[in-house]
Design brief:
The protein has no helices and 11 strands. With 123 residues, the chain is mainly beta. A hairpin with a 6-residue loop joins strand 5 and strand 6 (58-60). The chain is globular and about 40 Å long. The model has no long low-confidence stretch (mean pLDDT 94).
Amino acid sequence: QVQLVESGGGLVQAGGSLRLSCAASGRAFSTYGMGWFRQAPGKEREFVAAISWTGGSTMYAESVKGQFTISRDIAKNTVYLQMNSMKPDDTAVYYCAASQYGFGNKWVEYNYRGQGTQVTVSS
């Protein structure tokens, strides 16, 4: 069993930065692929970024490549999403997710999900 708790969301001006954290509990965390997804008001949930269990491989949505960086600290059981040069379009609830089966860009591939953290970017 893995439990995920996101933090670090909030209000930021366009052009600013935020770093989201996802703290995981569970002995097997270090073997799980991890992902970040987001859902804006009135829109479907979309993939943002993912990282392999070793941290050696990452994947990003085209819309955030070069802007966001995903990383993990296995010793701290934490995954991060560094978001730079933020835009109003980045406004959404951001969710952390864990997968026993690798890492990918589809919500259904992740069998553990956090409750989400709100990120609002003002123009």
